[in-house]
Amino acid sequence: MSSPFTPVVFYKDPMAALRWLEKAFGFETSLLVTDDDGNVGHAEMSFGEGRVGIGGEWGAADRIGPARMRSPASLDGQGTQFIRIELASGLDAHCARAEAAGARITQRPEDQFYGARVYRALDPEGHVWNFDQAIAQVSNADMEAASGLKIATALPGD
Amino acid sequence: MNVPPICPLIFYRDARAGLDFLERAFGFETRMVVDDGKGGVIHSETVFDGMVVMVAGPPPENYASPAELGGRATASICVQVKSGVDALCERARAAGAVIVREPSDQAYGDRTFGCHDPEGHAWFFGQEIKQMSADEMAKATGRKITAGLEG
Fold first, then answer.
1. pLDDT in tens, B4-31
2. What ipTM, to 2 d.p.?
């Protein structure tokens, strides 16, 4: 089933980001919209059934609204999201490929209590990419027991 | 209900308020909230049209809510709906969303609106009104549109 969501992440140099994401993670550019000067207006990448959008930073006055889209590279490395990506297999090899392409691995591949093997990488502009591969089906009760965390299935009052 | 293969996790100062807003404004349904033991949320999943986005907060180190960055954000979320984009905009407005682009027909064949949630995350909703090829979109928008990188 295709998702209604496309997260869009923003870069100072979106063309370089497209090339890097292809090389490091194996994403494929599926749509590239450029203006007469070759600047990226909007781009979409696919990875399996998943989609992610790539955009350039928004200028001060030429775009709508006060939510000015920035690269983490313009915000002292801070980001307002991370992107989680599900791999069917080959997580460790995927990490090795990303690292060889210059990804900064902030969390090495490791099995997590919630039933996934996970690694986490920063791209050259500081966006966080969280790759995971399912290794076990874990119930909420088992996750609570393993982590000591409290898990609810709705907001209170729903 | 599935977690899409590429799924954003977005950070709020107040994740529970964020989840509540997503329910009221857009019709999301929260299906999982993992308490961090200090009143915050280290992970949650909320569902729209059978698919999940994840919400957490307060943000850990190296992350922030747009509300902590003067409204700046490093991501937006585009949501494709099958119908009712105008009604959804009114619902969002009534729930307190700041509409930054009123519903309007776009040259690339979608009717879209854009809004900010109370912490400044940007959401864009689109409904296809005309199916168009990349060539037709290029002609209509005056942009160059290709299906891949060159070279």
1. 789 999 999 999 999 999 999 999 999 9
2. 0.93
How far is B126 from A4, CA to CA, in rounded Å? 10
Q: pTM of the predicted model, to two decimals?
A: 0.93
Angle at A73 between CA A70 and CA A76, to 5 degrees: 100
> A65-110 pLDDT, tens per residue?
555 899 999 999 999 999 999 999 999 999 999 999 999 999 999 9
Tell the residue number behind the tokens 């007469």, with chain if given. A36
Strands ordered across the beta sheet of B51-56 = A104-111, A116-122, A128-134, A81-87, B6-11, B51-56, B41-48, B29-35, A150-152
Cis, peptide link before residue B58, omega less than 30° from 0:
yes
DSSP state of A60: S
Report the b/e string of B60-97 with b at 16+ CB within 10 A.
Answer: eeebbbbbbbeebbbbbbbbbbeeebeebbeebeebeb
Question: Is the sign of the CA dihedral B63, B120, B115, A71 positive or negative?
Answer: negative
Yes or no, beta carbons of A65 and B100 under 8 Å apart: yes
Distance separating alpha carbons of residues B30 and A132, to the nearest angstrom: 22
Interface test with B, best of A29, A81, A153 (most B CBs within 10 A): A81
Pairing label, strands A40-47, A28-34: antiparallel
Is A82 in the B-facing interface, judged by CB distances under 8 Å? yes
Identify whether the C-beta of residue A18 lies closer than 8 Å to the C-beta of residue A77: no
For A5, which of B32, B51, B134 is closest by C-beta distance?
B51
Q: How many CB atoms lie within 10 A of CB B26?
A: 20
What DSSP letter does each residue of A75-103 carry, written as one string?
TTT-BSEEEEEEESS-HHHHHHHHHHTT-
Q: To which residue do tokens 């729930």 refer?
A: B95
